[in-house]
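pinned: reference chain
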Amino acid sequence: MGVMDCATQREAMVALLRERQHVSEPVAAAMRDVPRHLFVPGVEPQDAYRDEPIVTKRDDEGRPISSSSQPAIMATMLDQLDVALGHRVLEIGAGTGYNAALLARLVGPEGRVVSVDIDEDLVAGAREHLAAAGESRVEVVRGDGAAGHPELAPYDRLIATVGVWDLAPAWLAQLRPDGRLVVPLDLRGVQVSVAMERDDGHWVSRSVAPCGFMRMRGPFAGPEVVIVLRRDPELMLALPGPRKLGDVAAALDAAPTEITTKVEEPAPVPVIGMGMSLWLALHEPRWCALSGQTAAGPAISAGLVEGDSIAVLAAEGFLVARGHGGAGARLAADLAGHVAAWDEAGRPQAGDLRVKAYPGQADAEGIVIRKQHTTLELSFRSPARGS
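pinned: its structure tokens
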């Protein structure tokens, strides 16, 4: 594919994104300018400009550990970050280098972008991709992202392109007092992209959006667990923390017990991306996320898992709870109960969430999640009132 054809593909990608969501003109212009295909060598250009994530590295057990993120999510987070010309930006998680190149376009010739990654091969690859794209304004360094990069602090903006379990003290220390950070923050196994600013000694969210990223690795990694239930066809189960389970894969191959709720939801829909997933994570310790291929077909869903039994959600005009295994019927009933509670609450979505982050172990109200370095206080604004 020629240079002109790739430019046309980029135009089409951006046009599609702007049909589906708000994308500011500066972010749209950056995405039109930066050749994503140069950051994913080996991927056909027409595939590079689809609105899809591209896995670029897996661990020995087949779990994805690095990728080029979905362009729609990248655009959302870049707009949340609100970068201005001349800004100094710290990126946690270099990946392919593509997001750093977009940031370089946004900060302009007077700005600086520093991208930190824990893997030497990813750092080397990002540098090569940036050079191939003619981008010289990004410094890619190897290190534990939790430590930030104090050499060039303070930063106007900080963005993590890897799922984070906690807010690293170094990040907060290296940001200017009026700075902003945008991170895919883990909330008991569900990630939301949170844009936060300082407010009277703590951090408050300015916007929240659904997202999904590879988890941070190294000493600052969280307790989340991804279990490969089967390699071929691939089937994976994500949990907010370690849990002893039985043969869940075998249970999924058995005929389910189905409970159809009264909550309407057009099919098909990726249930894992719904506010229902966030609701489960914040209210149900048995919650899980299932992705891959099951006997019933492709699955990207949320549910409950216990022992060798599991219940997952499907959307078939109405939300359906499907229970598998010996305790499947009970789990399906519990799952249907959570659906009813979510519906009664006005079906809150990620965008209805408000997040406050306090340093250390602080007093908090509402839904409270205590991390190693921060205490999160969560609440939902009423979708019905739109407040």
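why pinned: The mean pLDDT is 90. The chain is about 25% helix and 35% strand.
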